[in-house]
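Hypothesis: this fold can be encoded by more than one sequence.
Test: take the structure tokens below, design a sequence, compare later.
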């Protein structure tokens, strides 16, 4: 059954349309069409995988036919990428063939688009070393690296027109706020009294976290600081629209719920650290019934929490004597005395 397009209107008459997309076989999400003042922008463009591009095209057509909006590719003024994860930018080449709209992304994710192949190669190299340190069994290391690289070849480098810093973190009357954590260049967009929260705040799941050990400006500390920075917006936001899942009508409660998830997870990691343990073992304890790509996400999520506790002196390395600056060594953690 085809998902319907949802229409949201701001208190001053701006319109936002949610265009549902099948991003990957087990991942669904949205591109958002913003019509606010002089700006007509696509906020994210989908993955470019499978039917995602066709669904994006169909979505724009439905906005015209079902909602009587006079808008097509030629009317777009901006393409705004919320952050540098492929399920949000993978459709860019398809989109760029159809519109001359100005393409922007946050400065900290610029290289992901303009130096895509190099960015993937560096990330894969870091992931290999990280898996060794995390205590991932050798056979599982190759499996996780293969899963990481899956579908990455679908995209190629693309030029952008501007960064959000260069635009003063504003596009017309739309305010952009940098909220690093889930991704270095993650932004949210304030469109009057509607918040486009992208993957910073989602309605049913806590957005994925990875350790800053893998990518600077990620990590749980950055995320929690960014989450706190968004909280004051709750008083003037009547709905938040994430990149996945349903609309959020109580932003403050959702922020509190996400914080609670991480507090509980940190407490459990400390409990697991009563005896020496690896990040891989912690990930299996936190997420015991997962498989496939979710195993990699679980490993990164566990590492983000271990890193947070280790930085604060709550978890300590239990095998310091094994460390060798010339080799990659499995790291073991234990609760500090």
């Amino acid at each position: 059954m085809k998902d319907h397009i949802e229409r949201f209107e701001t208190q001053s008459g701006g319109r936002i349309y949610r265009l549902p997309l099948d991003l990957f076989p087990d991942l669904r999400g949205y591109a958002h069409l913003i019509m606010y003042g002089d700006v007509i922008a696509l906020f994210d463009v989908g993955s470019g995988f499978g039917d995602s591009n066709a669904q994006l095209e169909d979505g724009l057509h439905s906005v015209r036919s079902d909602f009587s909006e006079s808008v097509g590719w030629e009317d777009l003024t901006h393409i705004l990428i919320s952050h540098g994860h492929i399920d949000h930018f993978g459709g860019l080449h398809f989109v760029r063939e159809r519109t001359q709209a100005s393409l922007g992304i946050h400065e900290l994710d610029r290289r992901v688009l303009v130096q895509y192949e190099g960015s993937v190669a560096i990330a894969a190299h870091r992931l290999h070393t990280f898996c060794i340190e995390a205590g991932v069994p050798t056979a599982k290391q190759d499996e996780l690296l293969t899963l990481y690289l899956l579908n990455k070849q679908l995209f190629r480098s693309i030029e952008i027109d501007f960064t959000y810093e260069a635009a003063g973190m504003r596009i017309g009357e739309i305010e952009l706020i940098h909220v690093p954590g889930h991704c270095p260049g993650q932004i949210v967009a304030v469109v009057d009294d509607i918040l486009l929260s992208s993957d910073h705040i989602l309605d049913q799941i806590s957005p994925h976290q990875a350790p800053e050990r893998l990518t600077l400006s990620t990590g749980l500390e950055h995320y929690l600081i960014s989450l706190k920075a968004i909280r004051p917006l709750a008083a003037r936001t009547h709905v938040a629209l994430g990149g996945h899942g349903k609309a959020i009508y109580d932003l403050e409660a959702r922020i509190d719920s996400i914080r609670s998830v991480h507090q509980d997870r940190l407490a459990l990691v400390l409990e697991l650290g009563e005896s020496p343990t690896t990040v891989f073992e912690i990930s299996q304890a936190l997420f015991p019934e997962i498989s496939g790509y979710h195993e990699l996400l679980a490993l990164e999520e566990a590492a983000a929490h271990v890193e947070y506790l280790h930085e604060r002196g709550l978890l300590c390395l239990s095998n310091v004597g094994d460390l060798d600056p010339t080799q990659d060594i499995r790291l073991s953690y234990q609760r500090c005395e």
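The longest helix spans residues 251-272. The chain is about 35% helix and 20% strand.
Hypothesis status: open.
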